[in-house]
Amino acid sequence: DGGITQSPKYLFRKEGQNVTLSCEQNLNHDAMYWYRQDPGQGLRLIYYSQIVNDFQKGDIAEGYSVSREKKESFPLTVTSAQKNPTAFYLCASREDGVSGANVLTFGAGSRLTVL
Amino acid sequence: DQQVKQNSPSLSVQEGRISILNCDYTNSMFDYFLWYKKYPAEGPTFLISISSIKDKNEDGRFTVFLNKSAKHLSLHIVPSQPGDSAVYFCAASEGGGTYKYIFGTGTRLKVLA
Q1: CA torsion through residues A70, A74, A80, A81, sign
Q2: Is A48 within 8 Å of B42 when comparing Cβ atoms?
Q3: Which has the least CB within 10 A, A67, B24, B80, B106?
């Protein structure tokens, strides 16, 4: 089955620690995205990558870093510089439709809690 | 500055009736719009999309309407079913190959049996 796998599903971190969230897709999509969901704030874009070895900052990139060394992988590191890291993190990839439809497919998410 | 707004945080509808979820945007460069449905602790799932060259798109019980002059889109669900109870997000992207998708804050729909 094709899809996006995020791991771990739940993660606890002490303040001051960096943590990396994994995102792997076997959909052969070129573009991948990271969003953060907080209560009442919808989904906010952290980083996105349209092609291997290239990525762009989203609206809330401060305190986060990414890499895109392989087409199928787009890990997100939450650094100690991120002031409020407790959130639900969602990874997505984009299908470029032949009819012009460009749909994001999401993973199941990772919940990060800072203790 | 919130470029995509869903001003109703929640909506309750009786089973079998129509659910109408609204979304407003401020960026006139947005040319592609999507609706997603989300259950707690899961990723959003795609429902329906519309390009700015259209004003209506239909898929089964779901219809999306786009009013470009008002910068407004709406999702109609007819008839509403209890399984439709979820949070619904609208999203928008600009043309020109940017593919940066901006999401609204979501509307929680509750369909009452």
Answers
A1: positive
A2: no
A3: A67
Longest dimension (CA), chain A: 47
Q: How do residues B19-54 score in pLDDT, each as one tens digit?
A: 999 999 999 999 999 999 999 889 999 999 999 999
pLDDT digits (tens, 9 = 90+) for A87-113: 999 999 997 665 546 789 999 999 999
If we measure between CA atoms, which residue out of A56, A86, A83, A80 comes closest to residue A68?
A56
Q: What is the DSSP string of A42-76?
A: -EEEEEEEEETTEEEE-TT-TTEEE--SBTTB--E
* Chain B residues inside the 8 Å CB shell of A103: 34, 46, 49
| Strand, helix or coil for residue B20 | strand
